[in-house]
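Ticket #4471: complex job returned nothing on first submit. Input attached below:
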Amino acid sequence: MNTDETAMDTEPGSSLSGNHLLPQLVAHLREHRAKLRDEWASRIRDAHLLEAMTPQEMVAETTSVYDNYVEVLETGSVEALQHYARDLSERIIPRGVETHEVVGIVLLLRDVLARSLFEKYQRDFGLLNQILDAYEPAANRIANTVAVSFVDERERVIRQQQDAIRELSTPVLPVRERLLILPIIGVLDSERAKQLTEQLLSGIRTHRAKVVVIDITGAPDVDETVANHLVQTVDASRLMGASVIITGLSPTIAQTLVTIGVDLSKMNTIGDLQGGLEEAERLLGYSVTRKEVSEGS
Amino acid sequence: MNSGPALVSILRQGDTLVASVHTALDDSEMIRFQNDLVRQIGEVRARGIIIDVAALDVIDSFGSRTLRSIADIARLRGATTVIVGIQPEVAFAMVRLGMDMGQVPTALDLEEGLAYLARLRAVGAS
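Support reply: We reran it on our side without changes. The output follows.
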Protein backbone atom coordinates (compact mmCIF):
# COMPACT_ATOMS: atom_id res chain seq x y z
CA MET A 1 0.00 0.00 0.00
CA ASN A 2 1.84 3.04 -1.24
CA THR A 3 0.15 5.48 1.12
CA ASP A 4 0.96 3.56 4.24
CA GLU A 5 4.53 4.80 4.60
CA THR A 6 3.45 7.85 6.50
CA ALA A 7 0.43 6.33 8.09
CA MET A 8 1.77 6.47 11.60
CA ASP A 9 2.37 10.20 11.91
CA THR A 10 -0.76 11.00 13.81
CA GLU A 11 -0.29 14.27 15.60
CA PRO A 12 -2.76 14.64 18.39
CA GLY A 13 -2.54 18.42 18.38
CA SER A 14 -2.97 19.00 14.68
CA SER A 15 -6.20 20.67 13.72
CA LEU A 16 -8.04 19.16 10.80
CA SER A 17 -9.95 22.23 9.78
CA GLY A 18 -6.91 24.44 9.77
CA ASN A 19 -5.69 23.15 6.46
CA HIS A 20 -6.89 24.99 3.37
CA LEU A 21 -6.60 21.87 1.22
CA LEU A 22 -9.22 19.95 3.16
CA PRO A 23 -12.26 21.55 1.49
CA GLN A 24 -10.84 20.61 -1.89
CA LEU A 25 -10.18 17.09 -0.68
CA VAL A 26 -13.64 16.71 0.78
CA ALA A 27 -15.23 17.99 -2.40
CA HIS A 28 -13.38 15.34 -4.33
CA LEU A 29 -14.54 12.59 -1.99
CA ARG A 30 -18.13 13.83 -2.20
CA GLU A 31 -18.03 13.96 -5.96
CA HIS A 32 -16.89 10.35 -6.34
CA ARG A 33 -18.96 9.08 -3.47
CA ALA A 34 -20.77 6.24 -5.27
CA LYS A 35 -17.69 4.86 -6.96
CA LEU A 36 -15.48 5.03 -3.88
CA ARG A 37 -18.14 3.57 -1.68
CA ASP A 38 -18.60 0.60 -4.00
CA GLU A 39 -14.91 0.04 -4.18
CA TRP A 40 -14.70 0.15 -0.42
CA ALA A 41 -17.59 -2.31 -0.09
CA SER A 42 -15.93 -4.73 -2.48
CA ARG A 43 -12.67 -4.44 -0.55
CA ILE A 44 -14.59 -5.27 2.62
CA ARG A 45 -16.07 -8.32 0.95
CA ASP A 46 -12.66 -9.42 -0.34
CA ALA A 47 -11.28 -9.17 3.16
CA HIS A 48 -14.20 -11.27 4.49
CA LEU A 49 -15.19 -8.62 6.95
CA LEU A 50 -18.70 -7.92 8.24
CA GLU A 51 -19.93 -11.28 7.01
CA ALA A 52 -22.59 -11.24 9.69
CA MET A 53 -24.41 -8.56 7.67
CA THR A 54 -26.78 -9.03 4.75
CA PRO A 55 -25.90 -7.27 1.47
CA GLN A 56 -28.67 -4.69 2.05
CA GLU A 57 -27.35 -3.92 5.50
CA MET A 58 -23.86 -3.62 4.04
CA VAL A 59 -25.02 -1.01 1.54
CA ALA A 60 -26.86 0.96 4.18
CA GLU A 61 -24.03 0.78 6.68
CA THR A 62 -21.22 1.56 4.28
CA THR A 63 -23.12 4.52 2.87
CA SER A 64 -23.77 6.00 6.25
CA VAL A 65 -20.27 5.29 7.50
CA TYR A 66 -18.81 6.81 4.35
CA ASP A 67 -20.86 10.00 4.62
CA ASN A 68 -20.08 10.42 8.26
CA TYR A 69 -16.41 9.78 7.61
CA VAL A 70 -16.24 12.52 5.00
CA GLU A 71 -18.19 14.84 7.23
CA VAL A 72 -15.81 14.30 10.10
CA LEU A 73 -12.89 14.88 7.74
CA GLU A 74 -14.50 18.14 6.75
CA THR A 75 -15.44 19.57 10.12
CA GLY A 76 -12.65 17.89 12.04
CA SER A 77 -14.35 18.54 15.34
CA VAL A 78 -13.49 16.12 18.09
CA GLU A 79 -17.08 15.97 19.34
CA ALA A 80 -18.39 15.07 15.91
CA LEU A 81 -15.69 12.43 15.68
CA GLN A 82 -16.48 10.93 19.05
CA HIS A 83 -20.16 11.05 18.36
CA TYR A 84 -19.60 9.32 15.06
CA ALA A 85 -17.46 6.63 16.65
CA ARG A 86 -19.90 6.03 19.49
CA ASP A 87 -22.79 5.86 17.07
CA LEU A 88 -20.91 3.39 14.92
CA SER A 89 -20.08 1.17 17.91
CA GLU A 90 -23.61 1.23 19.25
CA ARG A 91 -25.07 0.19 15.93
CA ILE A 92 -22.46 -2.39 15.17
CA ILE A 93 -21.84 -4.19 18.49
CA PRO A 94 -25.31 -5.75 18.83
CA ARG A 95 -24.74 -7.45 15.48
CA GLY A 96 -21.79 -9.38 16.78
CA VAL A 97 -19.13 -7.45 14.89
CA GLU A 98 -15.61 -8.01 16.20
CA THR A 99 -13.07 -5.33 17.05
CA HIS A 100 -10.72 -6.35 14.24
CA GLU A 101 -13.56 -5.98 11.73
CA VAL A 102 -14.41 -2.45 12.81
CA VAL A 103 -10.81 -1.36 12.77
CA GLY A 104 -10.38 -3.27 9.51
CA ILE A 105 -13.19 -1.52 7.65
CA VAL A 106 -12.16 1.91 8.84
CA LEU A 107 -8.58 1.27 7.73
CA LEU A 108 -9.83 -0.03 4.40
CA LEU A 109 -11.85 3.12 3.88
CA ARG A 110 -8.83 5.20 4.72
CA ASP A 111 -6.78 3.32 2.13
CA VAL A 112 -9.44 3.46 -0.55
CA LEU A 113 -9.76 7.18 -0.16
CA ALA A 114 -6.01 7.66 -0.07
CA ARG A 115 -5.65 5.72 -3.32
CA SER A 116 -8.23 7.85 -4.96
CA LEU A 117 -6.45 11.00 -3.85
CA PHE A 118 -3.21 9.55 -5.11
CA GLU A 119 -4.78 8.85 -8.46
CA LYS A 120 -6.21 12.33 -8.78
CA TYR A 121 -3.10 14.25 -7.83
CA GLN A 122 -0.42 11.93 -9.15
CA ARG A 123 0.72 14.38 -11.78
CA ASP A 124 1.48 17.11 -9.27
CA PHE A 125 3.71 15.46 -6.73
CA GLY A 126 4.07 18.52 -4.53
CA LEU A 127 0.33 19.02 -4.28
CA LEU A 128 -0.17 15.31 -3.62
CA ASN A 129 2.20 15.55 -0.71
CA GLN A 130 0.31 18.47 0.75
CA ILE A 131 -3.02 16.76 0.23
CA LEU A 132 -1.76 13.63 1.95
CA ASP A 133 -0.31 15.74 4.75
CA ALA A 134 -3.78 17.08 5.34
CA TYR A 135 -5.52 13.80 4.84
CA GLU A 136 -3.44 11.30 6.76
CA PRO A 137 -3.50 12.77 10.28
CA ALA A 138 -7.24 13.29 9.98
CA ALA A 139 -7.84 9.79 8.69
CA ASN A 140 -5.63 8.21 11.31
CA ARG A 141 -7.34 10.14 14.03
CA ILE A 142 -10.68 8.78 12.86
CA ALA A 143 -9.37 5.22 12.84
CA ASN A 144 -7.88 5.67 16.27
CA THR A 145 -10.98 7.19 17.81
CA VAL A 146 -13.24 4.57 16.27
CA ALA A 147 -11.12 1.74 17.65
CA VAL A 148 -10.94 3.24 21.13
CA SER A 149 -14.61 4.02 21.19
CA PHE A 150 -15.53 0.57 19.98
CA VAL A 151 -13.55 -1.06 22.76
CA ASP A 152 -14.98 1.38 25.31
CA GLU A 153 -18.49 0.66 24.17
CA ARG A 154 -17.91 -3.05 24.37
CA GLU A 155 -16.48 -2.80 27.85
CA ARG A 156 -19.43 -0.69 28.89
CA VAL A 157 -21.82 -3.37 27.63
CA ILE A 158 -19.85 -6.07 29.46
CA ARG A 159 -19.86 -4.07 32.68
CA GLN A 160 -23.57 -3.50 32.39
CA GLN A 161 -24.21 -7.19 31.89
CA GLN A 162 -21.97 -8.14 34.80
CA ASP A 163 -23.91 -5.79 37.05
CA ALA A 164 -27.17 -7.27 35.83
CA ILE A 165 -25.95 -10.80 36.51
CA ARG A 166 -24.72 -9.83 39.92
CA GLU A 167 -28.06 -8.35 40.88
CA LEU A 168 -30.01 -11.24 39.47
CA SER A 169 -27.83 -13.97 40.75
CA THR A 170 -28.78 -14.42 44.38
CA PRO A 171 -32.30 -13.42 45.22
CA VAL A 172 -33.37 -14.23 48.78
CA LEU A 173 -37.11 -14.75 48.64
CA PRO A 174 -39.49 -14.89 51.57
CA VAL A 175 -42.14 -17.55 50.85
CA ARG A 176 -43.93 -17.61 54.16
CA GLU A 177 -43.40 -15.84 57.42
CA ARG A 178 -39.96 -16.93 58.64
CA LEU A 179 -39.29 -19.08 55.60
CA LEU A 180 -36.82 -18.01 52.92
CA ILE A 181 -35.88 -19.69 49.71
CA LEU A 182 -32.65 -19.08 47.92
CA PRO A 183 -32.63 -20.50 44.41
CA ILE A 184 -29.16 -20.74 42.95
CA ILE A 185 -29.07 -20.55 39.18
CA GLY A 186 -25.89 -20.80 37.17
CA VAL A 187 -22.28 -21.37 38.02
CA LEU A 188 -21.33 -20.69 41.60
CA ASP A 189 -17.86 -19.24 41.75
CA SER A 190 -16.27 -18.14 44.97
CA GLU A 191 -17.21 -14.50 44.36
CA ARG A 192 -20.87 -15.38 43.98
CA ALA A 193 -20.73 -17.81 46.88
CA LYS A 194 -19.42 -15.03 49.10
CA GLN A 195 -22.14 -12.68 47.96
CA LEU A 196 -24.74 -15.38 48.49
CA THR A 197 -23.64 -15.84 52.08
CA GLU A 198 -23.81 -12.13 52.79
CA GLN A 199 -27.25 -11.81 51.29
CA LEU A 200 -28.57 -14.90 53.02
CA LEU A 201 -27.29 -13.94 56.46
CA SER A 202 -28.61 -10.42 56.23
CA GLY A 203 -31.86 -11.81 54.80
CA ILE A 204 -32.20 -14.05 57.83
CA ARG A 205 -31.90 -11.05 60.07
CA THR A 206 -34.27 -8.84 58.07
CA HIS A 207 -36.98 -11.43 57.64
CA ARG A 208 -36.40 -13.07 61.01
CA ALA A 209 -36.20 -16.36 59.21
CA LYS A 210 -36.18 -19.67 61.05
CA VAL A 211 -35.87 -21.93 58.04
CA VAL A 212 -34.02 -21.39 54.77
CA VAL A 213 -34.31 -23.63 51.74
CA ILE A 214 -31.33 -23.38 49.40
CA ASP A 215 -32.21 -24.90 46.06
CA ILE A 216 -29.27 -25.71 43.83
CA THR A 217 -31.15 -27.44 41.03
CA GLY A 218 -29.96 -24.71 38.70
CA ALA A 219 -26.28 -24.98 39.59
CA PRO A 220 -24.43 -27.11 37.06
CA ASP A 221 -21.37 -27.82 39.14
CA VAL A 222 -19.83 -27.21 42.52
CA ASP A 223 -16.15 -27.34 43.31
CA GLU A 224 -14.50 -27.99 46.63
CA THR A 225 -14.09 -24.34 47.61
CA VAL A 226 -17.69 -23.55 46.87
CA ALA A 227 -18.92 -26.70 48.61
CA ASN A 228 -17.01 -25.80 51.74
CA HIS A 229 -18.33 -22.30 51.49
CA LEU A 230 -21.83 -23.72 51.33
CA VAL A 231 -21.18 -25.76 54.46
CA GLN A 232 -19.90 -22.66 56.22
CA THR A 233 -22.99 -20.75 55.16
CA VAL A 234 -25.17 -23.46 56.66
CA ASP A 235 -23.20 -23.31 59.92
CA ALA A 236 -23.34 -19.52 60.03
CA SER A 237 -27.09 -19.59 59.45
CA ARG A 238 -27.46 -22.00 62.30
CA LEU A 239 -25.52 -19.62 64.55
CA MET A 240 -28.14 -17.05 63.70
CA GLY A 241 -30.87 -19.44 64.71
CA ALA A 242 -32.03 -20.52 61.27
CA SER A 243 -31.92 -24.06 59.99
CA VAL A 244 -31.01 -24.67 56.40
CA ILE A 245 -32.42 -27.28 54.05
CA ILE A 246 -30.52 -27.93 50.84
CA THR A 247 -32.51 -29.24 47.92
CA GLY A 248 -31.90 -30.18 44.32
CA LEU A 249 -28.46 -31.73 44.64
CA SER A 250 -27.94 -33.22 41.21
CA PRO A 251 -26.43 -36.72 40.90
CA THR A 252 -23.19 -35.19 39.63
CA ILE A 253 -22.91 -32.69 42.45
CA ALA A 254 -23.82 -35.28 45.08
CA GLN A 255 -21.09 -37.56 43.77
CA THR A 256 -18.59 -34.73 43.62
CA LEU A 257 -19.32 -33.71 47.20
CA VAL A 258 -18.85 -37.25 48.47
CA THR A 259 -15.71 -37.77 46.38
CA ILE A 260 -14.00 -34.60 47.56
CA GLY A 261 -14.97 -35.45 51.11
CA VAL A 262 -16.96 -32.41 52.13
CA ASP A 263 -18.51 -33.05 55.51
CA LEU A 264 -22.22 -33.09 54.84
CA SER A 265 -23.29 -34.90 57.96
CA LYS A 266 -24.67 -31.75 59.51
CA MET A 267 -26.52 -30.71 56.39
CA ASN A 268 -30.19 -31.31 56.00
CA THR A 269 -30.68 -32.28 52.37
CA ILE A 270 -33.88 -33.17 50.62
CA GLY A 271 -34.32 -34.32 47.05
CA ASP A 272 -36.25 -31.53 45.44
CA LEU A 273 -37.57 -28.07 46.17
CA GLN A 274 -41.09 -29.34 46.76
CA GLY A 275 -39.90 -31.77 49.40
CA GLY A 276 -37.74 -29.05 50.92
CA LEU A 277 -40.66 -26.66 51.23
CA GLU A 278 -42.82 -29.37 52.77
CA GLU A 279 -40.13 -30.13 55.31
CA ALA A 280 -39.70 -26.42 56.04
CA GLU A 281 -43.43 -26.02 56.59
CA ARG A 282 -43.37 -28.98 58.92
CA LEU A 283 -40.51 -27.43 60.91
CA LEU A 284 -42.38 -24.15 61.15
CA GLY A 285 -45.65 -25.83 62.09
CA TYR A 286 -47.53 -24.91 58.95
CA SER A 287 -49.91 -27.40 57.48
CA VAL A 288 -51.12 -26.87 53.97
CA THR A 289 -54.40 -28.47 53.02
CA ARG A 290 -56.19 -28.36 49.74
CA LYS A 291 -59.54 -26.64 49.90
CA GLU A 292 -62.57 -28.47 48.54
CA VAL A 293 -63.42 -26.87 45.20
CA SER A 294 -67.12 -26.04 45.44
CA GLU A 295 -67.86 -24.41 42.12
CA GLY A 296 -67.93 -27.61 40.18
CA SER A 297 -64.82 -26.80 38.20
CA MET B 1 -12.69 -5.34 90.95
CA ASN B 2 -13.76 -3.27 88.00
CA SER B 3 -15.73 -0.23 89.05
CA GLY B 4 -16.60 1.14 85.59
CA PRO B 5 -19.94 0.71 83.81
CA ALA B 6 -21.21 -2.83 83.67
CA LEU B 7 -19.84 -4.75 80.71
CA VAL B 8 -22.48 -7.42 81.06
CA SER B 9 -25.87 -7.00 82.63
CA ILE B 10 -27.48 -10.11 84.05
CA LEU B 11 -31.22 -9.73 84.54
CA ARG B 12 -33.64 -12.18 85.98
CA GLN B 13 -36.96 -12.82 84.32
CA GLY B 14 -38.89 -15.53 86.14
CA ASP B 15 -36.68 -18.58 86.11
CA THR B 16 -34.66 -17.27 83.17
CA LEU B 17 -31.46 -15.27 83.36
CA VAL B 18 -30.84 -12.84 80.53
CA ALA B 19 -27.21 -11.82 80.17
CA SER B 20 -26.54 -9.02 77.71
CA VAL B 21 -22.96 -8.50 76.71
CA HIS B 22 -22.60 -4.80 75.97
CA THR B 23 -19.09 -4.64 74.72
CA ALA B 24 -16.17 -6.81 73.66
CA LEU B 25 -14.74 -8.59 76.69
CA ASP B 26 -11.11 -9.42 77.17
CA ASP B 27 -10.13 -12.81 78.51
CA SER B 28 -10.22 -11.91 82.20
CA GLU B 29 -13.52 -10.09 81.84
CA MET B 30 -14.88 -13.13 80.07
CA ILE B 31 -13.84 -15.35 82.97
CA ARG B 32 -15.41 -12.95 85.44
CA PHE B 33 -18.63 -12.99 83.43
CA GLN B 34 -18.60 -16.78 83.48
CA ASN B 35 -18.11 -16.87 87.26
CA ASP B 36 -20.87 -14.31 87.88
CA LEU B 37 -23.34 -16.11 85.69
CA VAL B 38 -22.63 -19.58 87.01
CA ARG B 39 -22.97 -18.32 90.58
CA GLN B 40 -26.31 -16.65 89.82
CA ILE B 41 -27.79 -19.79 88.28
CA GLY B 42 -27.78 -21.37 91.71
CA GLU B 43 -28.91 -18.22 93.51
CA VAL B 44 -32.03 -17.69 91.43
CA ARG B 45 -32.59 -21.35 90.59
CA ALA B 46 -32.60 -20.53 86.90
CA ARG B 47 -33.84 -23.08 84.38
CA GLY B 48 -32.94 -21.09 81.29
CA ILE B 49 -30.13 -18.72 80.34
CA ILE B 50 -30.03 -16.38 77.41
CA ILE B 51 -26.74 -14.79 76.45
CA ASP B 52 -27.30 -11.88 74.08
CA VAL B 53 -24.24 -11.04 72.02
CA ALA B 54 -25.95 -8.68 69.56
CA ALA B 55 -23.64 -5.82 70.52
CA LEU B 56 -20.51 -7.74 69.62
CA ASP B 57 -18.98 -7.26 66.21
CA VAL B 58 -16.36 -9.89 66.81
CA ILE B 59 -16.23 -13.11 68.81
CA ASP B 60 -12.80 -14.68 69.15
CA SER B 61 -11.96 -18.29 69.81
CA PHE B 62 -11.56 -17.77 73.53
CA GLY B 63 -14.94 -16.03 73.62
CA SER B 64 -16.71 -18.80 71.80
CA ARG B 65 -15.04 -21.45 73.94
CA THR B 66 -16.05 -19.64 77.11
CA LEU B 67 -19.63 -19.38 75.87
CA ARG B 68 -19.60 -23.11 75.23
CA SER B 69 -18.20 -23.79 78.72
CA ILE B 70 -20.83 -21.57 80.29
CA ALA B 71 -23.50 -23.61 78.51
CA ASP B 72 -21.93 -26.88 79.66
CA ILE B 73 -21.59 -25.70 83.26
CA ALA B 74 -25.13 -24.35 83.24
CA ARG B 75 -26.43 -27.67 81.99
CA LEU B 76 -24.69 -29.40 84.90
CA ARG B 77 -26.46 -26.99 87.18
CA GLY B 78 -29.81 -27.66 85.53
CA ALA B 79 -30.24 -24.75 83.15
CA THR B 80 -30.40 -24.59 79.34
CA THR B 81 -28.37 -21.89 77.60
CA VAL B 82 -29.32 -20.19 74.36
CA ILE B 83 -26.96 -17.82 72.57
CA VAL B 84 -28.84 -15.09 70.73
CA GLY B 85 -28.08 -12.13 68.50
CA ILE B 86 -25.01 -13.35 66.63
CA GLN B 87 -24.58 -10.84 63.81
CA PRO B 88 -24.30 -12.04 60.20
CA GLU B 89 -20.66 -10.96 59.84
CA VAL B 90 -19.77 -12.49 63.20
CA ALA B 91 -21.50 -15.74 62.30
CA PHE B 92 -19.63 -16.06 59.05
CA ALA B 93 -16.30 -15.05 60.55
CA MET B 94 -16.77 -17.68 63.25
CA VAL B 95 -17.39 -20.55 60.85
CA ARG B 96 -14.55 -19.39 58.65
CA LEU B 97 -12.20 -19.60 61.59
CA GLY B 98 -13.54 -23.01 62.45
CA MET B 99 -15.33 -21.95 65.62
CA ASP B 100 -18.79 -23.10 66.41
CA MET B 101 -21.16 -23.30 69.31
CA GLY B 102 -21.13 -27.08 69.41
CA GLN B 103 -24.39 -28.34 70.85
CA VAL B 104 -25.38 -24.96 72.26
CA PRO B 105 -28.64 -23.77 70.72
CA THR B 106 -28.61 -20.38 69.03
CA ALA B 107 -31.47 -18.07 68.12
CA LEU B 108 -31.91 -14.90 66.13
CA ASP B 109 -32.62 -12.53 69.01
CA LEU B 110 -33.86 -12.27 72.58
CA GLU B 111 -37.46 -12.85 71.58
CA GLU B 112 -36.61 -16.01 69.69
CA GLY B 113 -34.44 -17.21 72.53
CA LEU B 114 -37.26 -16.78 75.04
CA ALA B 115 -39.64 -18.56 72.66
CA TYR B 116 -37.17 -21.42 72.38
CA LEU B 117 -36.95 -21.81 76.15
CA ALA B 118 -40.73 -21.60 76.46
CA ARG B 119 -41.11 -24.38 73.89
CA LEU B 120 -38.60 -26.49 75.74
CA ARG B 121 -40.51 -26.04 78.97
CA ALA B 122 -43.80 -26.89 77.26
CA VAL B 123 -42.30 -30.10 75.93
CA GLY B 124 -40.87 -30.93 79.35
CA ALA B 125 -44.20 -30.27 81.08
CA SER B 126 -46.32 -32.37 78.77
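Residues 125-169 of chain A form the longest helix (45 residues). Closing as resolved unless it happens again.
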